[in-house]
């Protein structure tokens, strides 16, 4: 039997999260025949998969939503300041229906491989449903979509129920009457723990590294709040894009903490703590830059933890002390620390009693074995590169992305990698992505990709490629920006530190406002780092 004939498109998009959905809409608008492959059975990406109890956004919903269609904003009603997963997933569904996107999406279909055919000027893609090909391949595969299961010996032997927060069963899980172990204390665990605790007979939290967390102060939104946002949202979003590092509307810090009096310091930290949410980090403008400044913010949060948690030993174990605050994504919680005051919730400090094995019955630490009905792994993701390297695209000369990125990911503007023509990344490494309100960064990248495709159309070019020298300079610039801050001081997933063997490189670009300025300058110079070509190699046949 001969191989089936490949499905032929102008552009193939992988992933139907917020990035893939907007990309498809824009490609259609350009008159291109685009198709999306998505391994899930529906749209929403992150919000399709992360259905663990308590999952919700940490950027306010009014802002954590698309800006490209004002009618979406007019017709969608967010119920809470921080919407929960079902509502965000329903929003993705609403957008897909409103713009009739699903007819160009193949669900339950994984992209398994992709290879650039230089002679044909095509990406040849292998999907679980058969082959496909297109001159343009766009990876909207997500920065936090490749779940990471820790390599703990005996994990497969456990006879009870096993869950990962990022692959939560759609029918939900009933923990009533059960003794549950949770492993991990990152953002996912911090959201899940209070809700699981409300149900389970007993909950034992296995913590290796404590995290800083700020109360969300979540609340129902009123009509007045929604209307106030709608009236000025375009203006406020534009302000945040132009003036903030993370594209989140907030009041900007007025001064460095090192110039504040003790009273001013306390008042501003307290005001931000009472307001709640991640804009606590914007209390002063030197917090991520200076060790002494950072220590004030860290100590303020530790003091709050000590106030909330009644058992002093547990409180101390929950206080992060060995990395600066804000150098890992700050967590946002509802009653996380309070949960440790409940009589049936206990903390196991894995720094003191390391986790040794998972057994048939439960978990063994150096203090002994304990039996559980269920183990929840809240152990995170192979972030930023995992989903891309799962496909491991093969570029020019048969070179794999895993080879090109052996020392760490290299992508010009976080958008394209040299040697991989016509392959676009949305919020790839080297772009602000995970340090921002991601929907804003997604929209920026989708718009940048469309600009490139329009330039190609206008000049009759068939390929676009990042230039190696410009790419090297960009990667050096990304690293230099990180090195000027405290960020590299934490063993974070931003650094690849959560995955054994992953190169330790700070992956995202710090400062989306600065990134935008750089991109605008490059656009004004007609994109010197991206070469266009017709026919074979871009460098052989520059199209101007
Ligand atoms: P995703 O939503 O991850 O979508 C990628 C899609 O690609 C997935 O559906 C996946 O199935 C699919 N895919 C991947 N590989 C393949 C393949 N080989 N074949 C087929 N399909 C594939 N960001 C914020 O800014 N604010 C928040 O409040 C926030 N909260 C978050 C909460 C959680 C629990 C998590 C995990 C992340 C959160 N993030 C948040 C980050 C979030 O990932 C982004 O905001 C955004 O949803 C990413 O959209 P995306 O389309 O780029 O990627
Ligand atoms: P994470 O931040 O990477 O946390 C993983 C946790 O698992 C850490 O506490 C880690 O400990 C622990 N862990 C990993 N391997 C372990 C092992 N072998 N033994 C013991 N503990 C182990 O993952 P996440 O919580 O899923 O969050 C990832 C990102 O997703 C967040 O940073 C955020 O960007 C996003 N997110 C956002 C929200 C939100 O509030 N909207 C919610 C969830 C996720 P160590 O630190 O010691 O490695």
CATH architecture assignment of the largest domain: 3-Layer(bba) Sandwich
CATH classification class of the largest domain: Alpha Beta
How many strands, what sense, and barrel or not for the largest sheet? 5 strands, parallel
Mean pLDDT equals 96
Total beta strands: 21
- The unreliable regions are 537-544
Number of domains: 2
Spatial strand sequence of the major β-sheet: 4-3-2-8-19
Main structural class: alpha/beta
Apparent shape: globular
Helix proportion: 25-40%
In CATH, what is the homologous superfamily of the largest domain? FAD/NAD(P)-binding domain
Observed structural traits:
544 residues; alpha/beta; FAD/NAD(P)-binding domain; 2 domains; five-stranded parallel beta sheet; 15 helices; 16% strand; globular; disordered C terminus; binds flavin-adenine dinucleotide; binds NADP nicotinamide-adenine-dinucleotide phosphate
Write up this protein:
By secondary structure, the protein is an alpha/beta fold. The chain has two domains: 7-146 and 382-542, FAD/NAD(P)-binding domain (3-Layer(bba) Sandwich); 187-377, no CATH class. The protein is 32% helix and 16% strand. The chain is built from 15 helices and 21 strands. The strands form six sheets. Strands 4-3-2-8-19 form a five-stranded parallel beta sheet, covered by helices on one side. The protein has a five-stranded parallel beta sheet with strand order 9-18-10-11-14, with helices on one face. A four-stranded mixed beta sheet has the order 1-7-6-5, with no helix packed on it. A hairpin with a 3-residue loop joins strand 15 and strand 16 (362-365). Helix 1 (18-29) runs parallel beside helix 13, helix 6 packs across helix 15 (512-524) and helix 8 packs antiparallel against helix 9 (312-318). The longest helix has 22 residues, at 438-459. The chain is globular, with a radius of gyration of 24 Å. The two termini are 45 Å apart. Mean pLDDT is 96; it is low at 537-544. It binds flavin-adenine dinucleotide and NADP nicotinamide-adenine-dinucleotide phosphate. Residues 14-20, 37-40, 45-46, 48, 50, 55, 57-59, 64, 110-111, 140-145, 188, 387, 390-391, 426-427, 437-438, 442 line the site of flavin-adenine dinucleotide.
């Amino acid at each position: 039997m001969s191989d089936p004939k490949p499905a032929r498109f102008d552009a193939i998009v992988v992933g139907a999260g917020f990035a893939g959905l907007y990309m498809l809409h824009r490609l259609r608008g350009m008159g291109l025949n685009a198709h999306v492959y998505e391994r899930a059975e529906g749209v929403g990406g992150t919000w399709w998969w992360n259905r663990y109890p308590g999952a919700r956004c940490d950027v306010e919903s009014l802002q954590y939503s698309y800006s490209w269609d004002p009618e979406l904003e007019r017709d969608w009603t967010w119920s809470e300041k921080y919407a929960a997963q079902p509502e965000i997933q329903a929003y993705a569904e609403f957008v897909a229906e409103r713009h009739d996107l699903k007819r160009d999406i193949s669900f339950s279909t994984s992209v398994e491989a992709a290879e650039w055919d230089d002679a044909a000027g095509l990406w040849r893609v292998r999907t679980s449903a058969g082959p496909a090909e297109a001159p343009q391949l766009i990876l909207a595969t997500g920065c936090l979509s490749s779940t990471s299961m820790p390599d703990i010996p005996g994990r497969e032997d456990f006879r009870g129920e096993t869950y990962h927060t990022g692959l939560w069963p759609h029918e939900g899980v009933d923990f009533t009457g059960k003794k549950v172990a949770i492993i991990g204390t990152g953002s996912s665990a911090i959201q899940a723990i209070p809700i699981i605790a409300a149900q389970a007979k007993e909950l034992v939290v296995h913590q290796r590294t404590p995290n800083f967390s700020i109360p969300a102060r979540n609340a129902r939104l009123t009509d007045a709040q929604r209307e106030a946002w709608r009236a000025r949202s375009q203006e406020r979003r534009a302000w945040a894009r132009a003036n903030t590092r993370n594209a989140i509307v907030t009041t900007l810090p007025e001064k460095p903490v090192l110039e504040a009096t003790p009273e001013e310091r306390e008042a501003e930290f307290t005001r931000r703590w009472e307001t709640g949410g991640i804009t606590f980090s914007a209390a002063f403008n030197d917090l991520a830059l200076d060790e002494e400044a950072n220590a004030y913010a860290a100590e303020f949060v530790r003091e709050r933890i000590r106030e909330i948690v009644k058992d002093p030993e547990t409180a101390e174990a929950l206080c992060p002390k060995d990395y600066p605050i804000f150098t890992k994504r700050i967590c946002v919680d509802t009653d996380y620390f309070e949960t440790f005051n409940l009589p049936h919730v206990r903390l196991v400090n894995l720094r003191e009693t390391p986790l040794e094995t998972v057994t048939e019955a439960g978990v063994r630490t150096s203090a002994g074995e304990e039996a559980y009905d269920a183990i929840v792994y809240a152990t995170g993701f192979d972030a930023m590169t995992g989903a891309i390297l799962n496909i491991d695209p093969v570029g020019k000369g048969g070179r794999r992305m895993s080879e090109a990125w052996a020392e760490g990911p290299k992508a010009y503007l976080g958008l394209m990698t040299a040697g991989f023509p016509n392959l676009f990344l949305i919020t790839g490494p080297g772009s602000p992505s995970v340090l921002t309100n991601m929907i804003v960064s997604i929209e920026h990248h989708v718009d940048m990709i469309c600009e490139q495709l329009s330039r190609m159309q206008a000049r009759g070019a068939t390929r676009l490629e990042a230039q190696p020298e410009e790419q090297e300079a960009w990667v050096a610039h990304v690293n230099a920006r990180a090195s000027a801050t405290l960020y590299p001081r934490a063993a974070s997933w931003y650094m690849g530190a959560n995955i054994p063997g992953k190169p330790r490189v700070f992956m995202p670009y710090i400062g989306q406002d600065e990134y935008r300025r750089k991109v605008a300058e490059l656009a004004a110079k007609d994109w010197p780092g991206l070469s266009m070509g017709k026919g074979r190699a871009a460098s052989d046949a520059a199209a101007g």
